[in-house]
Amino acid sequence: MNAQGIVNHAYQNGALNRFEVCWFFSHRQPSKGFMAKKILIIDDDPDAISFVQCILEDHGYENISSLSSIKGLEMARSENPDLILLDLFMPEKSGISVFKELRQDPRLNHIPVVVVSGMPQVTGVDVTTFIGRQIDPTEDGVSPGLTAPDGLVDKPIDPEKLINIIKKIMREGEI
User: Fold this and answer.
1) pLDDT of residue 51
2) DSSP calls for 59-126
3) Which of 12, 69, 120, 132 could form a disulfide with 90 if both were Cys (CB 3.0 to 4.6 A apart)?
4) CA dihedral 127, 132, 133, 135 (to 10 degrees)
5) Whether the Cβ atoms of residue 153 and residue 118 lie closer than 8 Å to each other
6) What residues contact 154, with CB distance under 8 A and at least 6 apart?
7) What CATH number should be reported for the domain whose range is 31-169?
8) Phi/psi at 26 (nearest 5 deg)?
9) Where are the domains of the chain?
């Protein structure tokens, strides 16, 4: 197992906190070989945003963030990100509502969305099933214009899994 794998394992087992992992990733050389893509992070937890920013910056991604779901939607419209990382549990407007708006807006529906959620850990509910029921509540399974999220990352976030999902969606290969 390489150093990154050891750090990821230690974080998953509670031996390291987010800031220690962030320090590790911030002191590595950034990945080379692809142009910087802009990723919008929408999450009401400032610690989660800081943690994800460190991971993204370490891998050469530009990032912008919002602690507000409403401001996040505005930023999606004004900044035209290449990908959006979206938390489900937001105080002003739920992540599901934001997701629906993103998918229904012709200017934004092309942007891949990765849901980042602690739902299974908090509620025991399968996120994929929950999201599916929220975006497609009909019995016949027809909801014009709505598709499932492009990816799902559980909290606590595994940095390697997050980057692999992003690279797969952006067709950059896996790390």
Assistant:
1) 94
2) TT-EEEEESSHHHHHHHHHHH--SEEEEES--SSS-HHHHHHHHHH-TTTTTS-EEEEE-HHHHH---
3) 69
4) 120
5) no
6) 117, 118, 120, 121, 127
7) 3.40.50.2300
8) -75, -15
9) 31-169
